[in-house]
Amino acid sequence: MQEIALQNIDIHTFQQDLIDWYQANKRDLPWRKDQDPYKIWVSEVMLQQTKVDTVIPYFNRFMVNYPTLKDLAEADQQDVLKAWEGLGYYSRARNLQTAVREVVAIYNGEVPNDPKVLGSLKGVGPYTKGAILSIAFDQPEPAVDGNVMRVLSRVLKIEEDITQQRVKKQFENHVRQLISREDPSSFNQGIMELGALICTPKSPMCMFCPVQKHCQAFAEGMEEELPIKKKAKRQKRIPYIALLIKNSDNQFVIEKRPDQGLLANLWQFPMVQSKNTNIEEAKKQFEEEYGITIEIGEKKGTLKHVFSHLIWELEIYEAEMIQHQSTKNKHLHFAEKRELRSYPFPVSHVNMMKYI
DNA sequence: AACTCGGGGGA
DNA sequence: TCCCCAGAGTT
């Protein structure tokens, strides 16, 4: 199978052109200062579905707070989530901490360099496993991400839907054939760097591409048509009434979200789904769900928060707590205004604080 | 294989 | 708007 796609490539020259370009043009990034497997690991998890420029400040703060794997293993999860606040996909942080705790408990605090062991850790999938093995341990393992599939779909003119898992495995097989045994780290990072800087999704800069002479899509003028990617479903919209509730001590009511699912273990201001825009209905619904009697005041504004698969449409009201009955299903807390920022909140609820 | 899981930035 | 981003876990 891969022989068909690879038959037109001079593998050795391709490796050399790519690695030479990478050595001359690689960005100076904080996780490229050394080969510490822990730092490589953290950076790769942060970089999942997240751009380099977004990750840099988070990575630097994270290394100040948790300079070693052991520091992270011993940390409080709420503090780790606070350090992750705004980065998104919070299961990455929870899984990373689960995994480093396992490394401390079972592997003497040393990041495993065995592919099967490494891949068994929480949050370490095929990409992250290959990235750690190649970058930290110089092993010739594929690390196929969106960049790699875009670059190789063009170089090898692969016209299959890259959202399919079967196709991603084909790319991994291609990389196994193509990867440099002498410098797998620079090879893998080189393809990703190329995808980020030159072989971009739109308007790739083929005139500056170090592997242009190897690129079958460029030869046929179809680089803009690749890769082929099935379109994602549209998000579902969910309207909410969200409440900035003060009690008689001038404290705000906040709640901890459940420990599974969306934004797990983060904090938020109370809110109820509002199919109807009737505020009296929302008040009744709220008092049933939360076991609090409230008086709803002025509408403070609206916020839209877009997730990958859904959209929150928040209508924000201020309110006063009249009476507190029971909260058996909700983890309610009362916090002063200045204390609020010590809790990890999703960005949408951080934005609500400007209405306080 | 399809669905869940954030948030930001570029065009 | 739409698309994409150094993806992984669950069902």
CATH fold name of the largest domain, please?
Endonuclease III, domain 1
Strand content: 15-25%
CATH superfamily of the largest domain: Hypothetical protein, domain 2
- What sequence of helices (H) and strands (E) makes up the elements? HHHHHHHHHHHHHEEEEHEEEH
The number of domains: 2
Q: Alpha-carbon distance between the termini?
A: 61 Å
Strand order, main sheet: write it out: 4-1-6-5
Estimated structural class: alpha+beta
Mean pLDDT across the residues is: 95
In total, how many beta strands? 7
How many H/I helices?
15
Low-confidence stretches: none
Q: Give the fraction of residues assigned to helices.
A: 40-55%
Domain HhH-GPD: 46-197
Catalytic activity: Hydrolyzes free adenine bases from 7,8-dihydro-8-oxoguanine:adenine mismatched double-stranded DNA, leaving an apurinic site
Pfam families: HhH-GPD (PF00730), NUDIX_4 (PF14815)
Enzyme class: hydrolase
Provide a descriptive summary of the structure in words.
There is one protein chain. By secondary structure, the protein is an alpha+beta fold. It has two domains: 2-225, Orthogonal Bundle (Endonuclease III, domain 1), CATH 1.10.340.30; 236-355, Nucleoside Triphosphate Pyrophosphohydrolase, CATH 3.90.79.10. The protein is built from 15 helices and seven strands. The protein has helices spanning 2-6, 11-25, 37-46, 52-65, 69-74, 77-84, 91-106, 115-119, 126-137, 146-155, 165-178, 184-197, 216-219, 279-290, 347-352, and strands spanning 236-246, 252-256, 267-268, 271-273, 292-306, 310-324, 331-335. The strands form two sheets. It has a four-stranded mixed beta sheet. Strands 3-2-7 form a three-stranded antiparallel beta sheet, with no helix packed on it. α2 packs across α12, α3 (37-46) runs antiparallel to α9 and α9 (126-137) crosses α12 (184-197). The protein is elongated, with a radius of gyration of 24 Å. The mean pLDDT is 95. The protein binds a DNA duplex (11 and 11 nucleotides) through residues 43-55, 86-92, 95, 122-128, 131, 143, 145-148, 164-166, 188-189, 192-193, 195-196, 201-203, 229, 231-233, 261-264, 305-310, 346-347. InterPro entries: A/G_AdeGlyc_MutY, DNA_glycosylase, HhH-GPD_domain, HhH_base_excis_C, MIG/MutY, MutY_C, NUDIX_hydrolase-like_dom_sf. Keywords: 4Fe-4S, DNA damage, DNA repair, Glycosidase, Hydrolase, Iron, Iron-sulfur, Metal-binding. Its cofactor is [4Fe-4S] cluster. Residues 46-197 form the HhH-GPD domain. It is an enzyme of class 3 (hydrolase).
